[in-house]
Write a structure and sequence with these properties.
- The structure is a single chain.
- The protein contains ten helices and two strands; from the N terminus they run H-H-H-H-H-H-E-E-H-H-H-H.
- By secondary structure, the chain is mainly α.
- It has a single domain, classed as P1 Nuclease (Orthogonal Bundle).
- Helix 5 runs antiparallel to helix 6.
- The protein is globular, with a radius of gyration of 19 Å.
Length: 282
């Protein structure tokens, strides 16, 4: 929402043209309660790469058999490894190449979205991924992991259990989920979403420089190393009020930065609008 409010009209129109070509566009519109269909598509596309984790049309390599490729999709793979890069935060940990490819994939997706020689189908598929991964790159635990003495990763905090006394319902969760949920629940829609976005935008002005994906991930890694893991040696730490207040401020700022930077990136990629013709039509 912050990105949408920060983009100019031409970029919004170009984004809308591309997303209308996505095979799940009608599904996105079915979730809306009226309003601007282009904004609806943009917002729903932003969570689509997570939504397909539970969608039986798709499959996970190494866990399931491939499913039939539906029209408009290159394949039905969930591409879980696109969401993160597993860089160690503790000195001397981690010996092999980092797992996850978000650092490389952001560059690939941006190139496809901005490529007027790519097909509309290719660009429409890449755009929701690009929107989503810009956000993921700003969540510190999508850029880092802590390693144990046995050399095993905690998978970006997914294997770290915490007690969060500030949760409305379930206080037991992973550290990764704690950081995912800090800016607000993923089901926010309509007026509540707009209000949350306005509040964050009022608190956090656009960064002086949009930076690069490499810089965004480095910022996230540094935050993970210094401020994301609860202090102490408890096997299952309890989040303190001081830690929680600091975490809320960090998460809010990172979401705002992601929105502003996404807007800047899309304006640079789509400033003159997408080609109307598709090379497959020639």
């Amino acid at each position: 929402m912050i990105a949408w409010e920060s983009m100019d009209a031409g970029t919004k129109s170009a984004v809308g043209q591309l997303l209308r070509q996505h095979p799940d566009y009608e599904r996105w519109q079915a979730r809306a309660h009226g309003g601007d269909p282009e904004l609806t598509a943009f917002l729903e596309a932003s969570t689509w790469p997570d939504d397909i984790r539970k969608d039986r049309r798709f499959y996970t390599t190494g866990r399931e058999e491939p499913t039939a490729t539906l029209p408009g999709f290159p394949d039905m793979e969930r591409r879980l490894h696109w969401h993160y890069v597993d860089r160690p935060v503790n000195p001397g940990a981690g010996t092999g190449p980092a797992a996850g490819v978000i650092d490389r994939q952001l560059a690939v997706l941006a190139r496809i979205v901005g490529d007027r020689q790519a097909t509309m189908a290719e660009r429409a598929y890449a755009l929701p991924w690009l929107i989503h991964l810009v956000g993921d790159a700003h969540q510190p635990l999508h850029a880092a992991s802590r390693y144990g003495p046995d050399g095993q990763s905690d998978n970006g905090g997914n294997l770290v259990s915490i007690v969060n006394p500030f949760a409305a319902r379930y206080t037991s969760m992973s550290l990764h989920r704690y950081w995912d949920d800090l800016p607000g629940p993923p089901w926010l829609r309509d007026g509540r979403l707009a209000s949350a976005a306005r509040s964050l935008a009022a608190l956090h002005r656009p960064p002086t420089s949009p930076g690069t994906p490499e810089q965004w991930l480095d910022e996230s890694w540094r935050l993970a190393r210094e401020r994301v893991y609860p202090p102490g040696d408890d096997a299952v730490p309890t989040i303190s009020a001081t830690f929680h207040e600091d975490a809320l401020a960090i998460a809010g700022r990172r979401v705002a930065e992601a929105g502003y930077r996404l807007a800047d990136l899309l304006q640079r990629l789509l400033h003159s609008g997408p080609r109307r013709e598709d090379r497959n039509d020639r």
